[in-house]
Amino acid sequence: MGMILVARSRRCALPDTWLAERRLANRRLQWRVAMGTALCMVASAALAVWIVSPGSRTLAQVDSMRQQISAQKAELQQVRENAQRDVSRMAIKLGELQADSARLDALGQRLVVAGKLDPKEFNFNQAPGMGGPEKTVPPARSLPYDLSVSMEQLAHRFDTQQAQLGVLQSLLTDRQVTADLIPSGMPIKGGYITSPYGERIDPFTGHESFHPGIDIGAFRGEQVHAVAAGVVTYAGVRPGYGKVVEIDHGDGYMTRYAHNSKLLAYVGEHVRAGEIISDAGSTGRSTGPHVHFEVWHDGKLVNPLAYVRR
To answer: Where does residue 307 rank: exposed (0-12), middle (13-18), buried (19+ CB within 10 A)?
Structure first.
């Protein structure tokens, strides 16, 4: 019987365990490759996030700044509207002040006329002379040009008016002081002249004589007023005059009030124009109640008629 020989190669002779180990190694390699790929993808994604993130933050900051600018623009618009309202109110007030200034000009003109000032002596339309070194002061804040110029002009006008009114006040005060010291008006309110100044027929003798004053009819006890401010230099009895009051008004003027029933002023008293100094009567050489009124200037008798009619 014949024998059949079967030859096996070495590859075929490898054990099964080796093949299993190879398969396991291959799977491990595949797993490692998959893990490496996954890690690369994760790293790429992280890198992309890291690269994109600063841009996103910048965009957020830009958006925030735009919102802030919008809010500031709204606030600026509100400020501009408020400023415009303030400017409008200032313009209205400026118009009112300009009207007041015009009224002051008109009042000043009336005062000049009322004070009987010589136009050459005082002109309200012309600013009084002023001067001094120039010193520029920068403005604290700016205003619209037209409004600023108008306010500067008005301020200058008020300064001029203030100076003018100060000069006018001084002139009128001087005039008033002078006028208060000059005899003016009747010593009896609503009185009438019963005997003139100068030559007349004496009521006691019937002969012609000189009358040094004027006689003003009055009721007994009627109030007698000083015709100008001054100082009482005499209050008593003089021959022919009866009870008499004499007042020195300064500037050479003196007035005498005679035939009073009662003396109310005293020597050394300062009296004002129109102040009561005595009660009318008929003391001294008199035919009935009246006031004998004399005016002296620089030591000389003058006609009182020119003063009682002032």
So the answer is: buried
CA distance 292 to 195: 9
Please, what's the largest Cα pairwise distance for the chain? 223
Segment 32-49, tens digit of pLDDT: 666 767 666 666 666 555
The predicted-structure confidence for 193-230, as pLDDT tens digits, reads as follows: 999 999 999 888 889 999 999 999 999 999 999 999 99
CATH class of 193-308: mainly beta
Residue 275, both tokens: 């102040």
**Dihedral sign computed on CA atoms, order 32, 37, 38, 43:** positive
Q: Are 293 and 241 in contact (CB under 8 A)?
A: no
Detail the DSSP E strand segments found in 127-263.
193-195, 198-201, 208-211, 214-217, 223-225, 230-238, 242-250, 253-263
Picking from 295, 292, 304, the residue whose alpha carbon sits closest to that of residue 230 is 295
Predicted model pTM: 0.51
